[in-house]
Amino acid sequence: MTANVLELEDIVVTHRRSGGPAVQAVRGVSLTVAPGQVVGLVGESGCGKSSLARVACGIHAPTSGAVRFEGAPLEPLRMRQRPAADRKLQMVFQNPYASLSPRRTIASQLLDGVTEPIPREQRAAEVARLLELVGLDAAAGSRYPSQFSGGQRQRLAIARALAAKPSLVVADEPVTALDAFSSAQIVQLLQSLVRELGMGMLFISHDLSLVRAIADETAVMYAGEIVERGPSEQLWERPTHPYTKTLIAAIPEIGPVKKLPGLDEDVAEPAAAGIDAAATNGASA
């Protein structure tokens, strides 16, 4: 059995634009996630985080580089075309309402993720089990997404991902659309699920303090590259890269107004590195 559930090796992602230059959103990134480990990927909007997430899930193929899930190459296929083994890699998206059908009950959507046939008489129990994992009552299964708050809908999206009994969950900005209280609840839920189920998780966010709260290791992404990676507390207490230091300094604090440090001239701006921030945002970077 492989030591890592996810291995990204020298990943390059280039977006082609009609009538304009190509945009290199990801530039030679290598990353691993082990079972029971949360790896945080942090960086500003447009740095390539979401482009990398879609490659990690097999939604998009990299321009070059290798993606391995549980030791085997991961082919970019639509989720329903994948073998059951590959469906053990699940993704939780930023907008929970967009990832849930408004016309179907929660129970029917949770059962979509199950990789093995379940006898009809056992389906209600499976739905109740999944809802219990995310802190919701079994009665939620008969309701529709519009009947839930944003935080509850994200719990439902997580429950649907858990239906496949995943080895890896890629969470791409999973709390950005939520208020602070709901965000804290979802982060605590994800932490407890990783401990309880032993799955790996790639947690992606622009919020370094949020990543610090959940991740065992943190990778900092800037201009399409990983510029620093290490244990989260070590990276927080002793950052080495100027961009990491700038991210930490920019976290709001209660107190006197302070001047934020800038980046030195030897740290490339995104445009100088061949990154068009506006274009990568438009390409879901």
UniProtKB/TrEMBL annotation:
Residues 6-248 form the ABC transporter domain. One of its GO terms (biological process) is peptide transport. GO terms for molecular function: ATP binding; ATP hydrolysis activity. Belongs to the ABC transporter superfamily. It holds the Pfam family ABC_tran. This is ABC transporter domain-containing protein. InterPro entries: AAA+_ATPase, ABC_transp_ATP-bind, ABC_transporter-like_ATP-bd, ABC_transporter-like_CS, Oligopep_ABC_C, P-loop_NTPase. Coiled coil: none annotated. Keywords: ATP-binding, Nucleotide-binding, Transport.
